[in-house]
Amino acid sequence: MKKTLTALCALALGGMSLSACGSSEEGADDGSITMGFAQVGAESGWRTANTTSIQESAKEAGIDLKFSDAQQKQENQIKSIRSYIQQKVDVIAFSPVVETGWDAVLQEAKRAKIPVVLTDRAVDTEDTSLYVTFIGSDFVEEGEKAGQWLVDNAEASDVDKDGAVNVVELQGTTGSAPALDRKKGFEDVISSDSKIKITASQTGDFTRDGGKQVMEAFLQSTPKIDVVYAHNDDMGLGAIEAIKAAGKKPGTDIKIITVDAVKDGMTALAAGEINFIVECSPLLGEQLMDVAEKVVAGEEVPDLIVTEETTFTPEQAAEALPDRKY
Ligand code: AHR
């Protein structure tokens, strides 16, 4: 489905003129585009690669990027967005820390006639006119791919051969789109096999340290663990440290499934310490700058731009690693 800028102006920006819709007074003067980008934080290898992609792509496109790091706090992102509105940037882009609670600030951007592009994470709102488009992954599908691998490998994943596949889940940041959707997709698929059960589930906040701490607690409190499902590589890598410290062999004594496929995760996968990774690409910068230029120029943009992604086994990781960009 396509949204024309005319439709966007009417719907999203309250019927203003095309030129005013795409560019603020500040940016229109010399024809250059100013983008305000409110990043989630620097919680993971994925996020670092995403920030690099956005900063490098802005430079290549000649877009003046105002960048802020919210340290995984919604209130910080809201402050940044308000500051971008005050500065009259041409376009605001952000990756929302959590799904809900954005309507008020997005209404302010709409009143200021500044288009908003969502990247990586979506918002949960009834009013889709508050943003122009979303560029990023299908997180439900990522969870489904993780679940499908486990269903297909259920027998080998019943490590203690007691007829039950006990999974502990390391969730991403509470209330974030990837945590909610990766959980949902995984649960939907594993429900087809009654042997597979999630026996413990807690947030590790998408960080390596969080994954390690939660896994340490699981190893103490949850007697039989066959599988770890971590919502990202970093938490899986933290879990590996905890498993080794408990005298067990990650990937063998406890199977590990993660999401992202950043270099550190792929290295652990190739070494057999992780068993399966679902890819989530952080390289969204080029598409974002392209969309920003189109929105400002009054061209059509799709409502939804979904990233194409794959999955990796240990063999595939070993093959892909030499050319891995992030
Ligand atoms: O929103 C994408 C997720 O955020 C990545 O999977 C994770 O690593 C990051 O922190």
Structure commentary:
The chain is an alpha/beta fold and 326 residues long. The protein folds into two domains: 2-137 and 282-308, Response regulator (Rossmann fold, 3-Layer(aba) Sandwich); 139-280, Rossmann fold (3-Layer(aba) Sandwich). Helices cover 44% and strands 19% of the residues. The protein has 14 helices and 14 strands. The protein has helices at 5-11, 18-22, 25-28, 45-61, 74-86, 103-111, 139-152, 154-157, 177-190, 208-221, 233-245, 263-270, 285-297, 314-320, and strands spanning 2-3, 34-39, 64-69, 91-94, 116-119, 133-136, 165-171, 196-203, 227-230, 255-260, 276-279, 301-302, 304-306, 311-312. Strands 3-2-4-5-6-13 form a six-stranded parallel beta sheet, sandwiched between helices. Helix 4 links the parallel strand 2 (34-39) and strand 3 (64-69). The chain is elongated and about 65 Å long. It starts with a strand and ends in a 6-residue tail after the last helix. Residues 43-44, 46-47, 120-121, 178, 206, 232, 234, 259-260, 280 line the site of alpha-L-arabinofuranose. Its main location: other. Residues 1-22 form the signal peptide. GO terms for molecular function: carbohydrate binding.
